[in-house]
Amino acid sequence: MTAPDGRVTYVGHATVLLELDGTRVLTDPVLRPRVLHLHRHDSPVDDALGSVDAVLISHAHWDHLDLKSLALLDGMPGLVVVPRGVGRLLRRGHFPAVAELEVGESVEIGRLTVTATPADHKVDRGPLGVHTHALGYRLAGSKRIYFAGDTDLFPGMAELAPLDLALLPVAGWGPRLPPGHLDPRRAAEALRLLEPSAAVPIHWGTYSLITKKRASDDVTREPALAFERYAAELAPDVAVHVLGVGESFELK
């Protein structure tokens, strides 16, 4: 499948399909109806994803690195990019093509240069898992795209500017948002540091606790809409695209 010059498709949670310069990259694929104590509110769109050239994993938390979701993809990803120390989880899951990066290191994927960026987010996958850091990623080709993964505000965001697109988390899955995350207001403040032409809110409205009754669509969308309102106030030159699951827009 040939990728267009620049298309962004929101798959849900922190999963985004980026099609740029003939290369298809998927971020943090979590696609299953249930992941541990979380259930998904909508039908996943994995059947429509097709094959991808690479997968970017921001960190090892279960709602960002799900080996069973990786196995649902159409064929083996050409490359799985992870923070250093996470590779053994992938190889244990029979994904042999793995690149482990530290902050500042890069890998070439097709015509794109993907560089690992800092993230302010504590990572612990449990006593039998891994203890590593989190990353964001900056993709550079004909467009410059930043995928934040999970992070809070950090001053180094300004060093990533300018950008054509920022993919920023604006919520979580539980009743509260702990440190190490962006809420709608802080995500809008990040726009002033990142200086993107466009932004897409991610990490909202897809998963919640199994014990929690599903909220109405209006409540589910509120973090993304709040981000849109704050962005209009704090970074009015940024075009915000609130995408539902499966929706896309073209990067111009």
Summary keywords:
4 helices, 7-stranded mixed beta sheet, globular, 16% helix, alpha/beta, 252 residues, single chain, Metallo-beta-lactamase, Chain A
Walk me through the structure.
Helices cover about 15% and strands about 30% of the residues. With about 250 residues, it is α/β, with parallel strands linked by helices. It has a single domain (about 5-245), classed as Metallo-beta-lactamase, Chain A (4-Layer Sandwich), CATH 3.60.15.10. The strands form three sheets. The protein has a seven-stranded mixed sheet. It has a seven-stranded mixed sheet with strand order 9-10-11-12-13-14-16, with helices on one face. Strands 4-5-15 form a three-stranded antiparallel sheet, with no helix packed on it. α3 runs parallel beside α4. The mean pLDDT is about 85.
Summarize the structure.
The protein has 252 residues and is of the alpha/beta class. The chain contains 4 helices and 17 strands.
Proportion of residues in extended strands: 25-35%
Alpha-carbon distance between the termini?
A: 21 Å
Main sheet specs? 7 strands, mixed
Instruction: Give the CATH topology.
Output: Metallo-beta-lactamase, Chain A
CATH superfamily: Ribonuclease Z/Hydroxyacylglutathione hydrolase-like
Classify the helix fraction into a percent range.
Answer: 10-25%
Supply the CATH architecture: 4-Layer Sandwich
Mean pLDDT: 87
Number of strands: 17
**What are the secondary-structure elements, in order, as H or E?**
EEEEEEHEHEEEEEEHEEHEE
Structural class by secondary-structure content: alpha/beta
Give start-end ranges of low-pLDDT stretches: none
Q: Can you count the helices? A: 4
Number of domains: 1
What is the rounded Rg?
Answer: 16 Å
Give the strand order, joined by hyphens, for the main sheet: 8-7-6-3-2-1-17
Instruction: Using the alpha-carbon principal axes, give the shape.
Output: globular
Oligomer: single chain
